[in-house]
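Hello, quick one for you while I still have it in my head. Could you read through the record and tell me how the tokens relate to the sequence? No rush at all, and the record is pasted right below.
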Amino acid sequence: MFRSRPLQGLLCFGLAIGCAALFVADVHAKRKGGRRRDKDGGVPPVEWAAGIAQAAEEARKDDGPYLIFFCSEDVAGFAGAGSRGVEKYSKTVTKMPPLTVFESAEVVDTLDAVEYPIAKIALTPQTVELARKYKVAAAPSLVACSPDGTVLCGLYGQVSEVNTIQLLKGLKETYAKWKKANPDKSLAAPVPAARPEAKKTASDDGP
């Protein structure tokens, strides 16, 4: 009996160390673009920038690209709000619009991994001119830009899980090529965003 106590102590100590290591690894993974999930295990919300100006400013600081997702006004209410946010939104409408790629766990995981800032814009009469600036004529569209607002590439009208992930994974190389060809533009001041940009979205927080 007495001889087993040191062994029990070592086992408890080892278990504590193991749990701590798993916790640190989980935090590290979340910070480095690992898999996030909401508290129910569902798709977490996208970490949207407050607007194009903020996304461009973050891109300038990171010396990287940023993204803009253009969608219809009703879709803007839930796109990228996470599983719980979508569920909440569905209870406020009589007919739920089709889900977007930002309700896909794989897309959100990829977006977390690449860590590019992204803004969401609802296509309304007030944002038509803004959309034209980014060559957008229809929703949904996903546009990738350099920090100075130059359009690098985009998905127009057809934004699927497959082509979104391809765009996200290939954007680092696309930006590197653009930067090499435009060394004086990559860290230019961000383009101001027009307002209003997007309607308030369903939140993933709350009961």
Remarks:
- The two ends are 50 Å apart (CA to CA).
